[in-house]
Amino acid sequence: MPPFRGSVLFLIICYLSSALALSHQNPTRSKLVLHEKRDAPPHGWTKRSRAHPAARLPLRIGLTQSNLHLAEEYMLDVSDPRSPNFGKHWTAERVANTFAPSREAVEGVVEWLVQSGIGPERHAFSPADIVLLVEGRNWILFNATVSEAESLFSTEYHYYEHRDKSRGYRIGCDEYHVPEKLRRHIDFAMPTIHLEGLRPVPNALVRRGAVRPPVEGLTGLGNCYELITIECLRALYHFGAGNTSAPGNQLGIPAWGSYLQPDDLALYFRNYTTQPIPNGTFPEFISVDGGLRWNSSLQIGREAGLDVQTAYSIIYPQGVRYYQVGDIDVGITGSFNTFLDALDGSYCTYLGGDAPYLDPVYPNPSPGGYSGPLQCGGAPGSNVLSFSYLQIEAALPASFQIRQCNEYMKLGLQGVSVLFASGDSGVANRYSSQSNNTCLTPRDVGDFIDSDGPRFSPSFPSNCPWVTTVGGTYLKSHNLSHGEIAVALPYAPNPKLDYYSGGGFSNVFPRASYQDSAVSSYLANFPPPYPSPDIYNSAGRAYPDISAMALNISVVIKGRVQVAGGTSASTPIVASIITLLNEARIAKGKGPIGFLNPTLYAHPEAFTDVTEGGNPGCGTAGFSAEKGWDPVTGLGTPNYPKLEEVFLALP
């Protein structure tokens, strides 16, 4: 901490005391204005009765961070290949100091609370002490009754019931107000319009039961159409076996409620990769908030098996950092917040983006729950993070998505490449693992559209401009030289899970500057046959950015090889290739690549263009794969030698 810590604490205490005194002299609050309003009924929730006025709420006010209007400038400065500062990534301390809320924001919100009868003795700024707020923390917390919250925000709270009765009730409101002079200092308050505690939905589609044709024993390049092995991937994307393991360059793979079985990993190594990998090889296990190692009482995770088996085989002898996020209740609720907490203490619960009714609470009071505190920082980071989980853009408030997306921006500034799957439902979405036909209607998006028909449903965080989003492809034929098409599969075990590469345009984030030329070219030369913005938002952040193989990928589950699909497969494949590129850069004395997209879009020649196929959904043919970038396969599939040439030429 800085040497002026004691004086700052004294000043803040004096300020709070004077503000409290002022509240007795002038209790009149400034004019309240609408801050956030739900445009449509909450997805999956039904409003019931008014909340009891004495019910207690853990209220959190997120303070607007400083300098976010310069985020793109900062990011491009270190990631644009034309920038003289390419690769000069920031320290975590510089990131925290640059985006810390202003003193004006802190003092203004504190004064409003005090004048509203919520005295300083009820405020909590951090688990440690008040000084941390002034030094860059982002939230003010306090407990209040429903009656107090309704008065504070000039709103009405109700109970909301989810259509899945097991998820119980939430307390929330349809809109809320804040003082006009403070609106620019407040991102959002919780609990208010945000009800959804969506668990990150895995995207691995594993064909269970009888598999036709049988895939046991299929190896070699002649069988890639039936079963994609590591040998097939090396032939397709022209990368060799790894031969280095730079310290700190392990590939990071987080998992939620999906568990990796060691025997399956060993069997995969023996049978489906040509590079010898010693017995007993296993990822570095990182437990976040009580995350468990696999044991016989836990279900083997198809998602974890697919991600780790594929990635580890590509990058070995480099290792994998396998983050098991959350304890026994992770399947009930939770978002990506707890993982971000573990990486960055400045984002942590009570300082970051969590809320107890949306994210798991630790210590967990449930029987058998994790009894330790929520992890705030301390987890080892990775230069590349591969996420095979998604949520639905329309089910989450824009303010929530923007705040979390900014955290991926901060990781990029520090040299981290963050990759997310694009989804497996074409231009539709999956609200659960049972259906991929979730589309938007006027009921979902309010007055934003005029059409009475369905609207395409983007995914989050695939829509975030600071991540690299990966779509899916498959082979045209048994002959590898014939190339790839956009993946498409009527999913036989469950007809509701037809599988098409996710892609489209965000309704929350605008188009990123680094992709403007490529996306504009697509829209001009291959205009989609749908009105914008009625059916899709052509001005939104467009995705995916790139693609890779995503069908009939080999995976061993419970001792049996099966075929898997999904952008859950293509994402760790691309993340592994980026890890190999980082290995090559580190061997030359250079740093990790960091945020990828400006360089990727500047060098489309480093990809094999995919020009066939589409991503149907919402009763339409979706978008089509075309020459150049498209919202089905992005820029195309990686060509490792060309990418290596590009990235080794950079500083």
TrEMBL record:
It catalyses: Release of an N-terminal tripeptide from a polypeptide. GO terms for molecular function: metal ion binding; serine-type endopeptidase activity; tripeptidyl-peptidase activity. Binds 1 Ca(2+) ion per subunit. Its cofactor is Ca(2+). The keyword Nuclease does not apply. One of its GO terms (biological process) is proteolysis. SUPFAM superfamilies: Protease propeptides/inhibitors (SSF54897), Subtilisin-like (SSF52743). Residues 1-21 form the signal peptide. Ca(2+) binds at D609, V610, G628, D630. Residues 227-650 form the Peptidase S53 domain. It is found in: Secreted, Extracellular space. One of its GO terms (cellular component) is extracellular region. Pfam families: Pro-kuma_activ. The keyword Glycoprotein applies. Keywords: Calcium, Glycoprotein, Hydrolase, Metal-binding, Protease, Secreted, Serine protease, Signal, Virulence, Zymogen. The active site is at E303, D307, S568. Its EC number is 3.4.14.10. It is an enzyme of class 3 (hydrolase). Secreted tripeptidyl-peptidase which degrades proteins at acidic pHs and is involved in virulence. This is tripeptidyl-peptidase II.
